[in-house]
Design a protein that fits this description.
Elements (H helix, E strand, L loop, with lengths): L10 H13 L2 H13 L6 E5 L4 H12 L3 E5 L8 H9 L3 E3 L6 H13 L4 E4 L3 H9 L9 E4 L2 H12 L6 E4 L4 H24 L7 E5 L3 H12 L3 E5 L3 H9 L3 E2 L2 H4 L5 E4 L9 H4 L6 E5 L9 H7 E8 L2 E6 L4 E5 L5 H4 L6 H21 L6 E3 L3 H14 L9 H7 L7
Length: 417
Protein backbone atom coordinates (compact mmCIF):
# COMPACT_ATOMS: atom_id res chain seq x y z
CA UNK A 1 0.00 0.00 0.00
CA UNK A 2 1.25 3.45 -0.92
CA UNK A 3 -0.39 6.86 -0.94
CA UNK A 4 0.34 10.51 -1.52
CA UNK A 5 -1.82 12.99 0.37
CA UNK A 6 -1.39 16.46 1.85
CA UNK A 7 -1.38 15.86 5.62
CA UNK A 8 -1.70 12.51 7.47
CA UNK A 9 -2.42 14.40 10.70
CA UNK A 10 -5.91 15.24 9.38
CA UNK A 11 -7.02 11.59 9.50
CA UNK A 12 -9.07 11.80 12.71
CA UNK A 13 -11.01 14.80 11.43
CA UNK A 14 -11.65 12.96 8.17
CA UNK A 15 -12.87 9.85 9.97
CA UNK A 16 -15.49 11.92 11.79
CA UNK A 17 -16.73 13.32 8.48
CA UNK A 18 -17.00 9.81 7.04
CA UNK A 19 -18.97 8.66 10.08
CA UNK A 20 -21.39 11.55 9.54
CA UNK A 21 -21.84 10.56 5.91
CA UNK A 22 -22.42 6.91 6.83
CA UNK A 23 -25.22 7.96 9.17
CA UNK A 24 -26.93 9.71 6.22
CA UNK A 25 -26.39 7.05 3.53
CA UNK A 26 -28.64 4.17 4.67
CA UNK A 27 -29.08 2.52 1.25
CA UNK A 28 -25.38 2.11 0.59
CA UNK A 29 -24.83 0.99 4.17
CA UNK A 30 -27.52 -1.69 3.77
CA UNK A 31 -25.83 -2.94 0.58
CA UNK A 32 -22.50 -2.92 2.37
CA UNK A 33 -23.82 -5.04 5.24
CA UNK A 34 -25.32 -7.53 2.82
CA UNK A 35 -22.18 -7.73 0.68
CA UNK A 36 -19.93 -8.25 3.70
CA UNK A 37 -21.39 -11.77 3.98
CA UNK A 38 -20.85 -13.09 0.43
CA UNK A 39 -18.08 -10.63 -0.57
CA UNK A 40 -18.96 -10.38 -4.30
CA UNK A 41 -15.92 -8.17 -5.06
CA UNK A 42 -13.44 -10.57 -3.50
CA UNK A 43 -10.03 -10.28 -5.15
CA UNK A 44 -11.04 -7.50 -7.57
CA UNK A 45 -8.92 -4.36 -7.77
CA UNK A 46 -11.02 -1.27 -8.53
CA UNK A 47 -9.31 1.86 -9.77
CA UNK A 48 -11.31 4.96 -8.87
CA UNK A 49 -11.01 8.47 -10.24
CA UNK A 50 -13.71 10.27 -8.28
CA UNK A 51 -13.92 13.31 -5.98
CA UNK A 52 -12.33 12.37 -2.65
CA UNK A 53 -15.16 13.39 -0.35
CA UNK A 54 -16.71 11.87 2.74
CA UNK A 55 -19.43 10.27 0.59
CA UNK A 56 -16.86 8.72 -1.73
CA UNK A 57 -15.12 7.33 1.35
CA UNK A 58 -18.33 5.52 2.29
CA UNK A 59 -18.34 3.94 -1.19
CA UNK A 60 -14.68 2.96 -0.83
CA UNK A 61 -15.42 1.34 2.53
CA UNK A 62 -18.32 -0.56 0.93
CA UNK A 63 -16.02 -1.82 -1.84
CA UNK A 64 -13.49 -3.05 0.69
CA UNK A 65 -16.20 -4.57 2.85
CA UNK A 66 -17.33 -6.56 -0.19
CA UNK A 67 -13.84 -7.99 -0.60
CA UNK A 68 -12.55 -5.56 -3.23
CA UNK A 69 -9.37 -3.54 -3.25
CA UNK A 70 -9.63 0.20 -3.94
CA UNK A 71 -6.90 2.36 -5.47
CA UNK A 72 -8.03 5.97 -5.72
CA UNK A 73 -7.34 9.43 -7.08
CA UNK A 74 -9.45 12.57 -7.28
CA UNK A 75 -11.11 13.65 -10.51
CA UNK A 76 -10.72 17.40 -10.05
CA UNK A 77 -7.77 19.48 -8.76
CA UNK A 78 -9.91 21.36 -6.20
CA UNK A 79 -12.41 18.76 -5.03
CA UNK A 80 -10.33 16.61 -2.67
CA UNK A 81 -11.13 16.93 1.03
CA UNK A 82 -7.65 16.49 2.49
CA UNK A 83 -8.89 15.20 5.83
CA UNK A 84 -10.92 12.47 4.11
CA UNK A 85 -7.92 11.50 1.97
CA UNK A 86 -5.86 11.21 5.14
CA UNK A 87 -8.48 9.02 6.80
CA UNK A 88 -8.62 6.66 3.81
CA UNK A 89 -4.83 6.42 3.67
CA UNK A 90 -4.73 5.58 7.38
CA UNK A 91 -7.25 2.78 6.75
CA UNK A 92 -4.91 1.25 4.17
CA UNK A 93 -6.39 2.58 0.96
CA UNK A 94 -3.92 3.57 -1.75
CA UNK A 95 -5.03 7.14 -2.38
CA UNK A 96 -3.32 9.79 -4.48
CA UNK A 97 -5.12 13.08 -4.00
CA UNK A 98 -4.77 16.49 -2.43
CA UNK A 99 -6.52 19.82 -2.92
CA UNK A 100 -4.76 22.27 -5.24
CA UNK A 101 -3.20 19.87 -7.74
CA UNK A 102 -1.48 21.25 -10.80
CA UNK A 103 -2.42 19.66 -14.13
CA UNK A 104 0.80 17.61 -14.16
CA UNK A 105 0.24 16.48 -10.56
CA UNK A 106 -3.35 15.56 -11.39
CA UNK A 107 -2.32 13.23 -14.19
CA UNK A 108 0.52 11.85 -12.08
CA UNK A 109 -2.15 10.74 -9.60
CA UNK A 110 -4.23 9.20 -12.40
CA UNK A 111 -1.19 7.25 -13.56
CA UNK A 112 -0.54 5.96 -10.04
CA UNK A 113 -3.98 4.35 -10.12
CA UNK A 114 -3.22 2.82 -13.52
CA UNK A 115 0.12 1.54 -12.20
CA UNK A 116 -1.91 -0.66 -9.82
CA UNK A 117 -3.41 -2.41 -12.89
CA UNK A 118 -7.09 -2.22 -11.91
CA UNK A 119 -9.50 -4.83 -13.23
CA UNK A 120 -12.47 -2.45 -12.99
CA UNK A 121 -12.47 1.33 -13.42
CA UNK A 122 -14.78 3.79 -11.68
CA UNK A 123 -14.57 7.19 -13.34
CA UNK A 124 -16.05 10.67 -13.00
CA UNK A 125 -15.31 12.60 -16.18
CA UNK A 126 -13.56 9.74 -18.06
CA UNK A 127 -9.98 10.95 -17.48
CA UNK A 128 -8.97 7.57 -16.07
CA UNK A 129 -10.50 5.63 -18.96
CA UNK A 130 -9.12 7.98 -21.60
CA UNK A 131 -5.60 7.94 -20.11
CA UNK A 132 -5.72 4.15 -19.90
CA UNK A 133 -6.70 3.85 -23.57
CA UNK A 134 -4.16 6.44 -24.70
CA UNK A 135 -1.10 5.62 -22.60
CA UNK A 136 -1.57 2.08 -21.25
CA UNK A 137 -2.99 0.16 -24.19
CA UNK A 138 -1.30 -3.02 -23.03
CA UNK A 139 -3.41 -2.93 -19.84
CA UNK A 140 -6.81 -2.53 -21.49
CA UNK A 141 -7.35 -6.25 -22.17
CA UNK A 142 -7.20 -7.10 -18.47
CA UNK A 143 -10.00 -4.67 -17.58
CA UNK A 144 -13.37 -6.34 -17.04
CA UNK A 145 -15.40 -3.15 -17.29
CA UNK A 146 -16.04 0.24 -15.77
CA UNK A 147 -18.61 2.73 -14.55
CA UNK A 148 -19.02 6.45 -15.27
CA UNK A 149 -20.48 8.88 -12.76
CA UNK A 150 -21.13 12.13 -14.59
CA UNK A 151 -22.75 13.58 -17.72
CA UNK A 152 -19.52 14.92 -19.21
CA UNK A 153 -17.83 11.56 -18.83
CA UNK A 154 -20.70 9.69 -20.47
CA UNK A 155 -20.54 12.10 -23.42
CA UNK A 156 -16.81 11.49 -23.83
CA UNK A 157 -17.19 7.73 -23.59
CA UNK A 158 -20.05 7.64 -26.09
CA UNK A 159 -17.85 9.58 -28.51
CA UNK A 160 -15.08 7.00 -27.97
CA UNK A 161 -17.53 4.14 -28.50
CA UNK A 162 -18.93 5.67 -31.69
CA UNK A 163 -15.41 5.88 -33.10
CA UNK A 164 -14.70 2.28 -32.11
CA UNK A 165 -12.03 3.34 -29.61
CA UNK A 166 -13.66 2.13 -26.37
CA UNK A 167 -12.27 -1.31 -25.64
CA UNK A 168 -14.36 -2.52 -22.72
CA UNK A 169 -17.94 -2.16 -21.38
CA UNK A 170 -18.89 0.88 -19.32
CA UNK A 171 -22.08 1.23 -17.29
CA UNK A 172 -23.44 4.79 -17.53
CA UNK A 173 -24.34 5.27 -13.87
CA UNK A 174 -25.04 8.94 -14.55
CA UNK A 175 -27.97 8.06 -16.82
CA UNK A 176 -29.84 6.04 -14.19
CA UNK A 177 -32.96 7.84 -12.98
CA UNK A 178 -32.00 7.27 -9.36
CA UNK A 179 -28.84 9.22 -10.15
CA UNK A 180 -29.68 11.92 -12.70
CA UNK A 181 -33.15 12.76 -11.38
CA UNK A 182 -31.87 13.21 -7.83
CA UNK A 183 -28.10 13.75 -7.64
CA UNK A 184 -27.98 16.04 -10.69
CA UNK A 185 -31.14 17.99 -9.87
CA UNK A 186 -31.35 18.21 -6.09
CA UNK A 187 -27.69 17.67 -5.30
CA UNK A 188 -26.30 20.12 -7.85
CA UNK A 189 -28.97 22.69 -7.06
CA UNK A 190 -28.28 22.77 -3.34
CA UNK A 191 -24.52 22.26 -3.36
CA UNK A 192 -23.87 24.87 -6.06
CA UNK A 193 -25.75 27.50 -4.10
CA UNK A 194 -23.84 26.38 -1.02
CA UNK A 195 -20.55 27.01 -2.83
CA UNK A 196 -21.66 30.42 -4.09
CA UNK A 197 -22.78 31.51 -0.64
CA UNK A 198 -19.63 30.26 1.11
CA UNK A 199 -17.44 32.11 -1.38
CA UNK A 200 -19.45 35.36 -1.41
CA UNK A 201 -22.08 35.49 1.36
CA UNK A 202 -24.21 37.67 -0.94
CA UNK A 203 -27.99 37.95 -0.65
CA UNK A 204 -29.62 35.97 -3.46
CA UNK A 205 -33.05 37.53 -3.05
CA UNK A 206 -33.63 40.08 -5.81
CA UNK A 207 -30.48 39.17 -7.74
CA UNK A 208 -30.61 38.37 -11.46
CA UNK A 209 -29.30 34.82 -11.47
CA UNK A 210 -28.22 33.56 -14.92
CA UNK A 211 -28.06 29.80 -15.47
CA UNK A 212 -26.40 28.55 -18.66
CA UNK A 213 -27.82 25.14 -19.53
CA UNK A 214 -31.19 23.68 -18.58
CA UNK A 215 -30.37 20.01 -18.35
CA UNK A 216 -30.80 18.13 -15.08
CA UNK A 217 -28.18 20.22 -13.27
CA UNK A 218 -29.41 23.54 -14.63
CA UNK A 219 -33.00 22.71 -13.72
CA UNK A 220 -32.14 21.92 -10.14
CA UNK A 221 -30.01 25.02 -9.83
CA UNK A 222 -32.69 27.28 -11.34
CA UNK A 223 -35.35 25.95 -8.99
CA UNK A 224 -33.20 26.33 -5.90
CA UNK A 225 -32.17 29.87 -6.86
CA UNK A 226 -35.80 30.85 -7.41
CA UNK A 227 -36.61 29.36 -4.03
CA UNK A 228 -34.04 31.72 -2.50
CA UNK A 229 -35.78 34.70 -4.12
CA UNK A 230 -33.55 35.21 -7.15
CA UNK A 231 -34.83 36.30 -10.55
CA UNK A 232 -33.65 33.43 -12.74
CA UNK A 233 -32.66 33.79 -16.40
CA UNK A 234 -31.89 30.67 -18.46
CA UNK A 235 -29.57 30.56 -21.49
CA UNK A 236 -29.83 27.54 -23.80
CA UNK A 237 -28.88 26.23 -27.24
CA UNK A 238 -31.42 23.38 -27.24
CA UNK A 239 -34.94 24.58 -28.21
CA UNK A 240 -36.67 21.84 -26.18
CA UNK A 241 -34.71 22.66 -23.04
CA UNK A 242 -35.33 26.37 -23.62
CA UNK A 243 -39.05 25.74 -24.06
CA UNK A 244 -39.11 23.67 -20.87
CA UNK A 245 -37.43 26.50 -18.98
CA UNK A 246 -39.97 28.97 -20.32
CA UNK A 247 -42.87 26.69 -19.34
CA UNK A 248 -41.30 26.35 -15.89
CA UNK A 249 -41.64 30.12 -15.55
CA UNK A 250 -38.09 31.28 -16.21
CA UNK A 251 -36.95 34.05 -18.55
CA UNK A 252 -35.04 32.68 -21.54
CA UNK A 253 -32.53 34.70 -23.56
CA UNK A 254 -29.12 34.38 -25.26
CA UNK A 255 -26.03 34.88 -23.13
CA UNK A 256 -25.19 38.00 -25.12
CA UNK A 257 -28.34 39.61 -23.69
CA UNK A 258 -28.13 38.07 -20.23
CA UNK A 259 -24.56 39.31 -19.83
CA UNK A 260 -25.66 42.91 -19.31
CA UNK A 261 -28.43 42.15 -16.79
CA UNK A 262 -27.00 39.31 -14.69
CA UNK A 263 -25.65 39.66 -11.15
CA UNK A 264 -24.61 36.01 -10.76
CA UNK A 265 -23.71 33.66 -13.61
CA UNK A 266 -23.48 29.87 -13.29
CA UNK A 267 -22.58 27.59 -16.20
CA UNK A 268 -23.96 24.04 -16.24
CA UNK A 269 -23.63 22.94 -19.87
CA UNK A 270 -20.72 20.52 -20.21
CA UNK A 271 -19.55 22.61 -23.20
CA UNK A 272 -16.67 25.08 -23.54
CA UNK A 273 -16.57 28.86 -24.04
CA UNK A 274 -20.05 29.51 -22.68
CA UNK A 275 -18.90 32.83 -21.22
CA UNK A 276 -16.14 34.57 -23.19
CA UNK A 277 -14.67 38.04 -23.66
CA UNK A 278 -17.66 39.34 -25.62
CA UNK A 279 -19.88 38.54 -22.63
CA UNK A 280 -17.43 39.67 -19.97
CA UNK A 281 -17.15 43.12 -21.55
CA UNK A 282 -20.91 43.63 -21.09
CA UNK A 283 -21.17 42.59 -17.46
CA UNK A 284 -22.02 44.86 -14.56
CA UNK A 285 -19.49 45.99 -12.02
CA UNK A 286 -19.52 43.33 -9.29
CA UNK A 287 -20.89 40.44 -11.39
CA UNK A 288 -20.10 36.99 -9.98
CA UNK A 289 -19.01 34.14 -12.27
CA UNK A 290 -18.89 30.44 -11.52
CA UNK A 291 -19.27 27.00 -13.05
CA UNK A 292 -20.89 23.78 -11.91
CA UNK A 293 -19.99 21.70 -14.99
CA UNK A 294 -17.29 19.06 -14.70
CA UNK A 295 -14.40 20.80 -16.48
CA UNK A 296 -13.15 24.38 -16.07
CA UNK A 297 -13.72 25.31 -19.72
CA UNK A 298 -17.19 26.87 -19.54
CA UNK A 299 -16.08 30.29 -18.26
CA UNK A 300 -13.07 31.41 -20.31
CA UNK A 301 -10.53 32.20 -17.61
CA UNK A 302 -8.03 33.02 -20.35
CA UNK A 303 -10.33 35.77 -21.66
CA UNK A 304 -10.92 37.08 -18.16
CA UNK A 305 -7.19 37.24 -17.49
CA UNK A 306 -6.68 39.05 -20.79
CA UNK A 307 -9.25 41.72 -19.96
CA UNK A 308 -8.02 42.36 -16.42
CA UNK A 309 -5.34 44.82 -15.34
CA UNK A 310 -5.04 43.25 -11.89
CA UNK A 311 -6.48 40.49 -9.74
CA UNK A 312 -6.50 39.52 -6.07
CA UNK A 313 -8.12 36.83 -3.93
CA UNK A 314 -10.62 38.85 -1.94
CA UNK A 315 -12.11 35.87 -0.09
CA UNK A 316 -11.32 32.13 -0.10
CA UNK A 317 -12.26 30.71 -3.51
CA UNK A 318 -13.17 34.19 -4.76
CA UNK A 319 -10.83 36.01 -7.16
CA UNK A 320 -11.50 39.66 -7.93
CA UNK A 321 -10.55 40.75 -11.46
CA UNK A 322 -10.36 44.50 -12.08
CA UNK A 323 -10.84 45.27 -15.77
CA UNK A 324 -9.13 48.12 -17.60
CA UNK A 325 -12.30 50.21 -17.37
CA UNK A 326 -12.38 49.80 -13.59
CA UNK A 327 -15.25 47.32 -13.41
CA UNK A 328 -14.75 44.34 -11.12
CA UNK A 329 -15.74 40.76 -11.90
CA UNK A 330 -15.50 37.91 -9.39
CA UNK A 331 -14.58 34.35 -10.39
CA UNK A 332 -15.33 31.59 -7.88
CA UNK A 333 -13.27 28.41 -7.43
CA UNK A 334 -11.03 29.19 -10.41
CA UNK A 335 -13.93 28.42 -12.75
CA UNK A 336 -13.94 24.81 -11.56
CA UNK A 337 -16.87 23.00 -9.94
CA UNK A 338 -18.13 25.61 -7.49
CA UNK A 339 -20.02 23.07 -5.41
CA UNK A 340 -16.83 21.11 -4.69
CA UNK A 341 -14.23 23.84 -5.09
CA UNK A 342 -15.94 26.22 -2.66
CA UNK A 343 -18.10 23.80 -0.65
CA UNK A 344 -18.36 20.09 0.22
CA UNK A 345 -20.29 18.84 -2.79
CA UNK A 346 -23.68 17.17 -2.77
CA UNK A 347 -25.38 16.23 0.52
CA UNK A 348 -24.83 12.67 1.68
CA UNK A 349 -28.52 11.77 1.44
CA UNK A 350 -28.62 12.25 -2.33
CA UNK A 351 -25.20 10.68 -2.95
CA UNK A 352 -26.55 7.64 -1.13
CA UNK A 353 -28.57 6.69 -4.21
CA UNK A 354 -25.81 7.52 -6.71
CA UNK A 355 -23.18 5.51 -4.90
CA UNK A 356 -25.56 2.63 -4.19
CA UNK A 357 -26.02 2.52 -7.98
CA UNK A 358 -22.25 2.56 -8.41
CA UNK A 359 -21.85 -0.28 -5.94
CA UNK A 360 -24.46 -2.55 -7.56
CA UNK A 361 -22.99 -1.78 -11.00
CA UNK A 362 -19.52 -2.79 -9.83
CA UNK A 363 -20.87 -6.09 -8.52
CA UNK A 364 -22.74 -6.64 -11.79
CA UNK A 365 -19.57 -6.06 -13.83
CA UNK A 366 -17.57 -8.46 -11.71
CA UNK A 367 -20.23 -11.11 -12.27
CA UNK A 368 -21.11 -10.52 -15.94
CA UNK A 369 -18.62 -8.05 -17.39
CA UNK A 370 -16.65 -10.72 -19.25
CA UNK A 371 -19.77 -11.52 -21.29
CA UNK A 372 -20.35 -7.92 -22.40
CA UNK A 373 -18.99 -6.37 -25.58
CA UNK A 374 -17.23 -2.97 -25.46
CA UNK A 375 -19.76 -0.16 -25.32
CA UNK A 376 -21.98 1.94 -23.06
CA UNK A 377 -24.62 0.09 -21.04
CA UNK A 378 -27.53 1.30 -18.91
CA UNK A 379 -27.88 0.45 -15.24
CA UNK A 380 -30.13 -2.63 -15.01
CA UNK A 381 -33.69 -1.50 -14.27
CA UNK A 382 -34.07 -3.86 -11.33
CA UNK A 383 -31.19 -2.07 -9.56
CA UNK A 384 -32.98 1.26 -9.88
CA UNK A 385 -36.19 -0.16 -8.42
CA UNK A 386 -34.31 -1.80 -5.55
CA UNK A 387 -32.52 1.43 -4.68
CA UNK A 388 -35.69 3.54 -4.89
CA UNK A 389 -37.67 1.10 -2.77
CA UNK A 390 -34.93 0.89 -0.16
CA UNK A 391 -34.59 4.67 -0.03
CA UNK A 392 -38.33 5.07 0.54
CA UNK A 393 -38.17 2.51 3.34
CA UNK A 394 -35.36 4.41 5.06
CA UNK A 395 -37.49 7.57 4.82
CA UNK A 396 -40.40 5.79 6.50
CA UNK A 397 -42.58 5.95 3.40
CA UNK A 398 -44.77 3.28 1.82
CA UNK A 399 -46.42 3.14 -1.60
CA UNK A 400 -49.36 1.31 -3.15
CA UNK A 401 -49.07 -1.94 -5.09
CA UNK A 402 -51.18 -3.02 -8.04
CA UNK A 403 -53.82 -5.67 -7.43
CA UNK A 404 -53.61 -8.80 -9.55
CA UNK A 405 -56.48 -7.51 -11.69
CA UNK A 406 -54.82 -4.10 -12.14
CA UNK A 407 -51.55 -5.73 -13.13
CA UNK A 408 -53.36 -7.88 -15.69
CA UNK A 409 -55.14 -4.78 -17.06
CA UNK A 410 -51.88 -2.89 -17.48
CA UNK A 411 -50.50 -5.74 -19.60
CA UNK A 412 -53.66 -6.25 -21.65
CA UNK A 413 -54.23 -4.66 -25.05
CA UNK A 414 -57.77 -5.88 -25.80
CA UNK A 415 -59.74 -3.83 -23.28
CA UNK A 416 -61.00 -0.64 -24.93
CA UNK A 417 -63.90 1.80 -24.65
Amino acid sequence: MSSKIKNPALAEEGSLKIEWAEAHMPVLMALRRRASKNRPLRGVRIGGCLHVTKETAVLVRAIRGAGGEAVWCGCNPLSTQDDVAAALAKEGVSVYAWRGLSTSEYYWCVRQVLDAKPQVTLDDGADLVFTLHKERKEQVSRVIGGTEETTTGVHRLRAMAEQGRLKYPIIAVNDAKVKSDFDNIYGTGQSSLDGILRATNVLLTGKNFVVAGYGHCGRGLSRRARGMGANVVVCEVDPLNALTAAMDGFRVMPMAEAASVGDIFVTATGCKDVITAKHLRRMKDGAILCNTGHFNVEVSVKDLEGLARKKREIRPNNMEYTLRNGRRLYLLAEGRLVNLGAAEGHPSEVMDMSFATQFLSLVYLCEKGRDLQPGIYPVPEEFEREIAETKLETMGMRIDTLTRDQDRYMRDYETGT
